[in-house]
Amino acid sequence: MQFVTIEGRGDPNEAGGAYQQALAVLYAVSYTLKMSPKAGYDIPGFFGYVVPPLEGFWRQEGGGPIDYANKGAFCWVSAIRLPDFITEKDLEWAKEQASRKKKLDCSAARLRAVHEGLCVQMLHQGPYDAEPASLERMEAFLEENGYVSDVTPQRPHHEIYLTDPRRTPPEKWRTVLRQPIKQPQNSPLQSAGRCGILTND
Question: In this model, does residue 194 exceed pLDDT 80?
């Protein structure tokens, strides 16, 4: 999967903080690329598409499980998926255009390919601070099916935000939680054909 990304750290709820600034840049660049034909910029292979939802890759500063009570120690990569026909050249054009038109510093935006591998995911409904309960269900599901979490700095916790928290009450927020997983070396199970979907509805 290909994304435009910005990497940072700190509390995502901080008003005007690094995370909020990153989101403004990601959306500005993403919509500039989407609207490139109207700007007269030609991208080979371009076709009309809908800008996908915001995504995030999360880990805790210093490693270990994510402590939702210590948001200042969050390390994050905010991301919006891009079509495969977008190139580095196209992204640089969009950054220049968005910087000029939106009066934003878009220099931190990067094109990144993500090879996620085997994962378990769950649809979480509710506020972000209630995610640990869903993560516990995911861990129990893994144990029942012969897998373990494989969250590392190279394979971080992944979230996909299906609702806009600015327009939706917290109890109706919908977030896909995705965790990298693996089979223990001594597991007798075969990974082929083993999968599952969880929801907290």
Answer: no
